[in-house]
Design goal:
10-stranded mixed beta sheet; two-stranded antiparallel sheet
Length: 307
C-alpha cells in the first residue's frame, strides 16, 4: 500500500529538484525526505531517483508517479473535506419557527422519536403565530424554516427567497357545550345552530374574515357570546357553556371534558399547514424532517401532506 504522505513528498521533490528544498518546504529534514523516498521506492517496487554525491535526479517512473499522485492527492483531499463537512452538518443547528398548537401537540412527539435522533439535526425553536415567524425568514432574520398555517387564500405573504412545502390540512370542527344536550357526533344542519351563542375570532383578522364568509354562505349569522383567538381558551369557555366554537383538530388533541363535537356538513374549513424554507437551507435531511412531521400529523388524524 502506497503511503499518501510519501506521495506528497514525492511531488515536492520533483517540483523543487532536491531533497533539501522539498524538506524546507514540508518542514522535514533532508534525511527524512530521503528516507521517505527510499520507502516509496520499496512500496512501488521501482527506482525513482538517480542519486549521486551532489544531486538526485527523478527517473521516468518518478515523473509518471508524480503526475498521477497529484490527482490521487486531490481526490483524497476532496474525500476528507466531504467527510468533515458531513460531520459538521451532523451538529448543524436549524432555527425553526412554529405556531403554538403544532409546537404543543406534534413537535414534542417527533423530538421523542428514534427517527428524529437519526436525523442529526439540532433545533432552536421559536414559537409564535405565522405572521411573526415569517418575519424571521426575511434577509438577516433569525429563522431557517417556519411551520405556518393559512386559512383560505389570504392573510400571509412570504419572501421570494423561500420555498413552500405542504405538510397537512388541519380541519376545523364544530364544538358545543355538553350541557346543551346534543349527542356527540350528531350530524346537524347549520340552520340548527343559528340561534345559539358562539365564541368567535376577533374581527379584522384574516381567519375571522374567512369564517364569517363561510357562516354567511350557510345563512348562519351567529350571536357572539365571546371573542377569542386562543383555541385552548375557546374549548374551556365552550365546556363552561358560554357558546359553540369552531376549533381545529390539532388544538383538540388533549381532549376537553364538557364539550361535544358535531358534524355540520355545510361547515367545511381547514388550516393548511406548510413549511416555508429558505432555499439554500434545503437538504435531504430537511425533507426527511418534513416527512416525519407529516407522519406525526397522520397519527393525530390530521390530513396528510398533499402531493
Amino acid at each position: 500500500m502506497v503511503n499518501p504522505v510519501h506521495l506528497r513528498t514525492l511531488l515536492e521533490v520533483t517540483r523543487r529538484g532536491s531533497f533539501a528544498a522539498a524538506a524546507m518546504q514540508l518542514g522535514y529534514t533532508a534525511s527524512a525526505v530521503s528516507q521517505q523516498m527510499s520507502a516509496l521506492e520499496r512500496e512501488a517496487g521501482v527506482k525513482l531517483f538517480e542519486r549521486t554525491a551532489r544531486s538526485v535526479q527523478p527517473t521516468e517512473a518518478a515523473v509518471v508517479m508524480a503526475r498521477h499522485a497529484a490527482k490521487v492527492l486531490t481526490d483524497i483531499d476532496a474525500l476528507l473535506a466531504a467527510t468533515a463537512s458531513t460531520h459538521e452538518n451532523t451538529n448543524q443547528e436549524i432555527r425553526l419557527g412554529i405556531f403554538p398548537s403544532l409546537a404543543t401537540h406534534a413537535l414534542p412527539r417527533l423530538l421523542r422519536s428514534p427517527a428524529w435522533r437519526d436525523l442529526g439535526l439540532n433545533l432552536k425553536v421559536f414559537v409564535a403565530e405565522p405572521a411573526q415567524t415569517i418575519q424571521g425568514l426575511r434577509a438577516g432574520g433569525e429563522l431557517d424554516i417556519a411551520l405556518v398555517y393559512q386559512v383560505g387564500q389570504g392573510g400571509l405573504a412570504w419572501p421570494h427567497t423561500v420555498s413552500r412545502q405542504w405538510i397537512g390540512d388541519d380541519n376545523f370542527r364544530v364544538v358545543l357545550p355538553e350541557s346543551w344536550g346534543i349527542r356527540a357526533g350528531s350530524e346537524v344542519a347549520a340552520s340548527q345552530l343559528a340561534e345559539m351563542p358562539w365564541i368567535m375570532h376577533h374581527p379584522g383578522t384574516s381567519d375571522a374574515t374567512v369564517i364569517e364568509r363561510l357562516f354567511a354562505s350557510c345563512n348562519l349569522h351567529p350571536r357572539v357570546a365571546a371573542y377569542c383567538d386562543d383555541f385552548n381558551a375557546s374549548l374551556e369557555l365552550a365546556a363552561a357553556g358560554v357558546g359553540a366554537a369552531l376549533v381545529p383538530e390539532l388544538a383538540m388533541q388533549r381532549g376537553t371534558a364538557g364539550v361535544v363535537v358535531l358534524d355540520v356538513p355545510e361547515i367545511r374549513l381547514a388550516r393548511n399547514i406548510f413549511a416555508l424554507l429558505i432555499n439554500e437551507k434545503q437538504s435531504a435531511r430537511m425533507d426527511l424532517f418534513m416527512d416525519q412531521l407529516s407522519g406525526i400529523l397522520r397519527g393525530l388524524s390530521i390530513a396528510p401532506r398533499r402531493t
